[in-house]
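Aim 2 progress update. The chain analyzed this quarter is reproduced below.
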Amino acid sequence: MSEQLTKWQKFKRFLKRNMTKTWAMHFSYQVFAFLVSCAMIAGVATYAFTKSYDGRKLTFVDGFTITAHTGAYDTKENTLESIKTAIEKGSKIIEIDIRQRPDGTLVMGHDIILTNSDGVELSSAFEMIKKTEVRFNLDIKETRVLKTLHDMIVEYGIMDQVFLTGIEEGQVKSVVENCPDVDFYVNCVPSRVKIFSDDYQQEIIEMLEETGAVGINCNYANASRTLSDLLHKNGYLLSIWTLDTTRQMKRALIIKPDNITTRNPDKLKEIIDNWGE
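Predicted structure tokens:
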């Protein structure tokens, strides 16, 4: 009875019989050439797309803003140094992540806080902006912080200087109950295919009406000009995160969002200043 070989076993047997040094070098060269060709094609395509944005007229919605992502300007995320640097660089909105220590103290932190010594206390951050015009984009990482957060916002008198992001649709009830007078965006993953459907557009608007959100906060990959136009037509805002490359920034600017969050605000400003050149 003949031995039944799998395709992988047959392929390995073929290589063992035919893989001479010359053949191996030739095969390696072909693979290398193929990969280089793919990289060149991708590079040319990226360049072409990026240049195509430059040919379009750049316009902004009223009140367009740039948010400095926590850790912008090559600083450590969720630190007072990050906030201080962003303020010194002229940032009008700064994003920070909100967590809670086991003892209930609110702190800046992206990951779960495990001890009562982790994270920088949020009160220190609020102290830095209470006598300025700088605003905080408070990215909520856990809804249990909301009641204490609201009390702190009132205590520091910065209601007009903060808004919430990181809020999923299922968390809206907690926001409304605990932070009833704080503006917030709903995190959303809008379909770039369904967005052309009237029914889908109606679903988005109805969701915003029901939640009371000021608009949608979404990843740049899910944003589109159609979504932007829909929201603006109905009185809502579009915030896009997190843009760091030139191509991402140019594409986002064409969409006409109300806010762009980036770790590289200077790069974004430079692109705006030199648009079309």
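Strands lie at 65-68, 93-100, 106-108, 120-121, 135-140, 162-167, 184-187, 215-219, 237-241, 259-262. The longest helix spans residues 21-54. These observations will guide the mutagenesis experiments scheduled for the next reporting period.
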